[in-house]
Design goal:
Layout: E1 2-7, H1 15-25, E2 29-33, H2 44-48, E3 53-57, E4 65-69, E5 74-77, H3 85-88, E6 93-98, E7 101-107, H4 115-138, E8 142-148, H5 172-183, E9 187-188, H6 189-193, E10 219-223, H7 225-230, E11 231-236, E12 252-256
Parallel strand pairs: 1-2, 7-8
Antiparallel strand pairs: 1-12, 2-4, 3-4, 5-6, 6-7, 8-10, 9-10, 11-12
Helix pairs in contact: 4-5
Length: 261
Amino acid sequence: MSIATWNVNSARQRAGHIAAFLDRVRPDLLLLQEIKCEAKAFPAEAFAQAGYGAEIVGQKAYNGVAVLSRVPVRVTERALPGLDPALAEQARYIEVETRGVRVGNLYLPNGNSGGEAGYEGKLAWMGALADHAQRLLDEDVDLVLAGDYNVCPEDVDFAPRTLPAGDALIRDQTRAAFRRLIWLGLTDALRAVQPGGPAYTFWDYQAGCWPQDRGLRIDHALLSPRLAERLESVRIERDERAAEQPSDHVPVVVTLGDQPQ
């Protein structure tokens, strides 16, 4: 099973990029974040031609997540359970089940806007995610939680001088909330196959970040224990950032082997 995650920074603007990626890579699931449109405006027909169905949780102009699949899926959640209603109004989570695996697609709040209240919202979202993950793990569910976490877990996950001290992506509370997910028993897929060194998934449009390779690793896939045992590879599709009019993120592709008999 192959699962890709990609913050596309507008599904309509990047529809051609997405369709080309589907034709080239053929993941079983493509998890999209920041689609920036309501479901009725999502360019599903462009992906249907490649054999992919679409499940969408959209929002006008902001946020939005979608799952493109070439295998049958069942939607289990269209919002993250346990959120305050004000946070739940934002289209940031969709969860599906396929082949006995639950896959949560998430677009976690950045936390740098709205002052301390905005940051507290980020932490509340992360807390609700951990609580939901704990419930699923307690039920012995095979689980993938993938998407744009807006978290650099360690200093190696951002290039020097790309983030100011105190940025919401690297604050102590942010990293502690991410560690809570790991301590539940989830595995950071990329770090399982590449324990050290930079492996960026995002380069800002400003300040020459892409040509100078001043990136961040903020797109992650976390795996429950049995899925971590099936992990075969994690590939960052870095070349997508060099495309014409690219997203500022690139896809991350996780490949899982067959379930043991």
